[in-house]
Amino acid sequence: MDQGRYYNRAVSSSTRGVIAGGTGDITGSPAMTSNMQYVTISSEGGSNDFGEMDFARNGLVPASNNTRGLLAAGYVSPANIRDTQILFITIPTTGNSNGFGSLSEAQDQGAGINSPTRGVFAGCKNPARSDVISFVTISTLGDAEDFGNLTTSKGAMPGASSSTRGLIFGGDDGSNFINNIDLITIPTLGDATDFGDLLAINAESTAASSQLRGLCAGGETPTGGGWTNVIQYVTIATAGNAIDFGDLTVARGNDLGGFSDAHGGLAQ
Question: φ, ψ for residue 143 (rounded to 5)?
């Protein structure tokens, strides 16, 4: 990438991944950024400039289909507030973000879930943990509507999805880290149910998915504030606990930007 970043989030089409916002190294230098970078998933190589968001942001909540990427809320600089605004980009092109609508509450570090038609935003870490799930129709513009509630209030967790099912991996409830995986059915409305448990308890991890599998990678461990290199997976169509997939090249955390070319927002 152009620089090291954390608290960044990403959206993707079947060909491109776009990494948005974030903060520089752990000392805060470089500072929070409004920049978006993209890569071509089928090839190897560094990132390229995509455009700019309206403000510097981190802790965004992402969702996308094959055309549009949504970047919701987050922590905004220089105002130093958490926001309700949803931004959108057109993934096959490059350019700056545009306004889409708003969430019902200011937040950051929630889980984003995709189907070809809906973007779903679940929970948040700040200013307080939340169990709210909301959704938008990706092809239109407008404010988010109520979807249901998570099994508990939590934040600092990623989402993964097939075109019909969404999973929310782990997180923290403000007092403890959570190993639970929540399940929602994206085409309907309703509360999350229990899917199973993570193999390794973590928060501030990342996720990626195909239509068959959801992966949860890295994150902060509950002891000592260290990072993990563990990658774990579940089969989205069935309920059950996570299974070991492999390891990241190094231990990583602080809301990595994960994406794939076959997630639930991409019709198969």
Answer: -80, 155
Closest CA to 163 of 210, 215, 111: 210
Place of tokens 């931004």: 87
pTM for the whole structure: 0.95
251 alpha-carbon distance from chain centroid: 19
| Dihedral sign from CA coordinates of 254, 49, 140, 73 | positive
In 3D space, the residue among 79, 105, 242, 87 whose CA is nearest the CA of residue 170 turns out to be: 242
* Spatial CA neighbour of 207 closest among 56, 105, 46, 63: 63
> 103 vs 109, 125, 127, 138, CA distance in Å?
13, 15, 14, 14
**Tens of pLDDT, residues 101-119:** 999 999 899 999 999 999 9
In angstroms, rounded to a whole number, what is the distance separating the alpha carbons of residues 115 and 239?
A: 19
How does pLDDT run across 49-99, given as a tens digit for each residue? 999 999 999 999 999 999 999 999 999 988 889 999 999 999 999 999 999
> What dihedral do alpha carbons 247, 248, 249, 253 form, nearest 10°?
-140
